Amino acid sequence: MLSRRTLFRLLGAASLMQVTPFGAMAATGGSVSLPFTDSTVRDIAFAMSKKHYMPRPLVPQAWQNLDYNQYREIKPRLDQAIWSGANREFSAQPFAPGSYFKQAVALHTVENGQAKQIPFARDLFERGKLVPDLPDDSNLGFSGFRLRTPLNNLDIHDEFLVFQGASYFRAIGKGHWYGLSARGLAIDTAEPTGEEFPDFCGFWLETPKPGATTIRVHALLDSPRTTGAYIFDIVPGSTTEMEVSASLFPRQDLEHVGIAPLTSMFLYNGIDRSRFDDFRPSVHDSDGLLIDNGAGERLWRPLANPRNLQISAFMDNNPRGFGLMQRARRFDQFTDLEARYEKRPSLWVTPLAPWGKGSVTLVEIPTAKEINDNIVAYWRPEKPLKAGEEHQISYRLSWCWDAPGEAPLAKVTGTRMGARGEDGRLAVIDFEPHNAIPVDVSDIKADYSSWPQNAIRSHVLEHNRETGGTRLAMTFAASPDKHAELRVQLRDASLKPLSEVWLYRWTA
Fold this sequence. Notes:
3 domains, 15-stranded mixed β-sheet, Immunoglobulin-like, mainly beta, Beta-galactosidase, Chain A, domain 5, 508 residues
């Protein structure tokens, strides 16, 4: 329980947070250390939630006016990295503000229970020829930061994690190229009234001990309707793991909130590429939503780039996990030497405490360009988050090649679609080789259903000699409203599940 004196002290710190680009530590200047514990950011968030939201000030106009190419030429200097040369497994580099990042965030280091603000300094950055003269100020702040560690080579600190922009962050494991992103929180995604984007407005980076393989980052979240405190325990590796614990303090009831939101890009693949005149067979950071639901089912939903906004809700009670996955892993599925989409990570969410009732929600937004992230997936609790209460959430994020803890079921490895007659469609679904599925599939059942009823006209199940797996070719009718919901699962003679459940919403 906070004392009255502590509450007023934190309310004062919250006021400083709202009128300067620095965090609550800015009250005494960047050169002074202040006590810090795991509850410090939580206490600041609680205190801020008792005050009206006040947007952070904008950085000077000259910084805002930087165009894309000018901003790219302001690069963090390796020799000025935080903890550089200190015999640590990690180093950190701040990013400059400006251009798209018009509001600064506060960065601090924490060591031996003391937090110290990192002041802005020109020497932290290299500036290219395109960069104009800019006003420098130790109170300028930053737009975010990146973390580095020997990920792919023991002698080189590779970038593996970036926090920058609103509450966005993205990470990679060994051998990955950057792809999809995560967020701290989503509010009113795809609502007609517009989406609210909370910001991480302050970070505290705990100084890792020599030889440590884990690094802890604290983040303060703020938006018009909520505040929050986040702790990220991060372990880079072949799969980069992040354990996330958060306390949210809504200023208003949050009816539509997204927990553990993931954001990705899907332009096209073999399901529907007729709209794109492109040399590449596929273009996407992720190709499917995977769900381990509370009923013990594993669901695979291929992604789509629809012509109209599309929202799907998968009702559940205490889900075991969900994620946006990249299952296309061969170069010939993309043939793009620059983007290397086959190396993009999958991102899996594992709840670390029961989440109760709600839905895994998938939002698919029409796009004509691969530079647009048009896919969002998140957990939406059934009940709103009430104002004036503390709401605690915890989960693990795994930036991986494939979902951890694979179920003993045949995975869907590909989906393709095309016309079949005047009003019909053909869906071809490939499953991976599986010990329980023999070459002779005559005793294997394709258990399917559809909406509208009887949309599926016929199917053929056969062994795929080229892959060693199983292929289902299914013809379905286009309904009068050009819409069909399809569900398929392979089962043995006793109706025991042999594959994931394949789900798809087809729209014209």
